Amino acid sequence: MTYHSESDIIAFHGYFLSIGATVRPLRPNLMSEHADAMRRYVEALERGDTLEKVMGPSWRSFVKRPKVVAWMSGHCPTNSKREAYVAELSKYITVDKYGGCGDKPCYTRHPISDLCWKNVLMGNYSFYMSLENNLCDEYITEKLYNPLLHNLVPIVYGGSDYDRFLPPLSYINARHYHPRELARLLTRLHQDPVAYGRYHVWRGYFQAKILGSMCELCSRLHTDTTTSYHTDVPKWRMTSGRCKAVPYNMFNSTVGKGAWRTIISTNYDTI
What we know:
With 271 residues, this protein is of the alpha/beta class. 33% of the residues lie in helices and 13% in strands. The chain has 11 helices and 7 strands. The strands form 2 sheets. The chain has a 5-stranded parallel sheet, with helices on both faces. Helix 4 links the parallel strand 2 and strand 3 (95-98). Helix 4 crosses helix 7 (179-190). The longest helix has 13 residues, at 35-47. It is globular. Mean pLDDT is 88; it is low at 262-271. Belongs to the glycosyltransferase 10 family.
């Protein structure tokens, strides 16, 4: 039982509920388990539905934020070199840093605490840096689901294929952008309420939830009579994790765009 979908049972830090659904899937953290809601949501995007159409008058509370982006962390340095990415991004846009890795207090260093999210981050920022400390396949923690739950757009940074776990146009993948390019994108979206609002349209079709679920474990205990075993769990973890190493200076301004993109990613976001 691990976070990876190749496990016998998935343990996850957050998931989604399809609004209006009567049956909860056993693995609700996977978008493939929300086929009907996904279909309706994609149709809404193709129609060009705005957040105002989906949410009504309350849409303004999502787009009127005085500040652009925040990051909260108490663990640094990291294997993913996320702190280096933030340092380079901070050259082009103000990133308010909370917790032990920053210079701003936020009630508590614990990232799950609602005090910081509700009293400081929620309502003040448009984006949140959801940066994992390791770049491993499907390794996604509460850093992703907290901003979704508290009405911010997450800027993800990890080793996962996030399309498998998130509705389209609900996040921005930092690994598809040099920090300089990301700063330009965030500035433009922050200044355009309609374009930024599109990143919240998914809320009319899905509800984000924090922490895990024991539904799959309970179902297996009651219905699965098969027997299985694993001979080398550490080897399996190394194979399934597919963790990536990141050179510390790769985000530096002097690193050429071509070299940076070759190392960090082969895919690019489009708006």
